[in-house]
Request: fold
Amino acid sequence: MNSDRYNSPHWTESDLISRLYGLDPEQGRSAAHLEECRECGALWLSVQARRGSVVNVAPVPDEALEERLRAQRQAVWARIEKPRRPFLWRMLPAAATALMIFAGVAMHQVKPPVPPVQTASTVSDAQFFNEIASVVNQETPRAADPLQGLFDSNAAPAAIEAQ
Ligand SMILES: [Zn+2]
Reply:
């Protein structure tokens, strides 16, 4: 490897690998040397071919890569800006919410009305006051009747019948 013929030194394999990944070449190495020097040019091609076989993708020139990235960005933007789902499909959550509200209101109205309690309306005021008067006019409270029956054997059947 005699680099005297060239203005710049030969490239080593690690330099070429660094170049493959876009790193700056070491001081003194020039890209023009890869075209001038047959050895380094062949080594550069073999390094690229090896990477291609590993990655299974041919080395992409910068312009093609830029074009591919631009297309990718455009596809992403198109997907963001374009509504993905049809209008009716997007309205589905709102429709489901409306249906739930409607069902809630409908179930609230279906609730059976409370039957009227038959209490004071069936008993007339006169009957009510008569009953109160009879309770008030009793000499002994009704609850005392069974107790009186214990002491008066003759009155016992009458007390039981009175209840
Ligand atoms: Zn060389």
Observations:
- The first helix runs from residue 13 to 20.
- Residues 117 and 123 are 12 Å apart (CA to CA).
- Residues 10-11, 33, 37, 39-40 surround zinc ion (CB under 6 Å).
